[in-house]
Design the sequence.
């Protein structure tokens, strides 16, 4: 269905909470509506980029909803519109949350892989504390995510946050033995 020009403005409009229709559908897990809205966005790629309430982008909300199909649909839409540079995995200082953090928090290695394949350099994305996705995974003790991130880029284990902490420090402080062992082993591995 081709959308009249004026209706695309309605898709971009925000409610009093700062959310668009796409945000509301994602927050309320109305995935069929999300698919419909994304499919109708022929000229409305900006919908995927705009943050709503609490600094969450539609991509972050899709990851948070554990909706791998929607995440892939958004990535495909970004690629098809040649706007993939605009679909960010960053965590910025304005409180915008990284979809990578959501994927790690949910222990969803599949979505994490989709995001990392979409933006391969994202192992070095930092939050306002200077922490990378490996810091996040290490602090939570999530071994599959740690192994995946180390496999992508071992040198991220050598990045300190603003407090001088390496991912190894966070895993140690929180008592995650397996995480400590794998991170430590990666530092001395020659392969």
Sequence:
């Amino acid at each position: 269905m081709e959308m009249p020009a004026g209706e695309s403005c309605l898709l971009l409009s925000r409610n009093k909470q700062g959310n668009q229709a796409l945000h509301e559908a994602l927050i309320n897990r109305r995935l069929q509506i999300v698919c419909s809205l994304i499919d109708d966005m022929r000229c409305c790629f900006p919908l995927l980029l705009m943050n709503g309430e609490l600094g969450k982008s539609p991509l972050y909300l899709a990851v948070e909803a554990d909706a791998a199909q929607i995440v892939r649909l958004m990535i495909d839409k970004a690629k098809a519109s040649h706007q993939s540079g605009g679909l960010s995995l960053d965590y910025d200082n304005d409180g915008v949350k990284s979809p990578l953090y959501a994927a790690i928090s949910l222990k969803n290695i599949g979505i994490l892989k989709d995001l990392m394949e979409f933006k391969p350099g994202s192992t070095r994305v930092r939050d306002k504390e200077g922490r990378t996705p490996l810091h996040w995974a290490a602090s939570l003790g999530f071994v599959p995510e740690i192994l995946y991130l180390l496999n992508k880029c071992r040198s991220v284990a050598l990045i300190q946050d603003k407090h001088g902490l390496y991912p190894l420090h966070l895993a140690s402080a929180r008592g995650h033995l397996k995480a400590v062992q794998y991170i430590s082993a990666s530092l001395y591995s020659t392969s």
About this structure: Residues 1-6 have pLDDT under 50 and may be disordered.
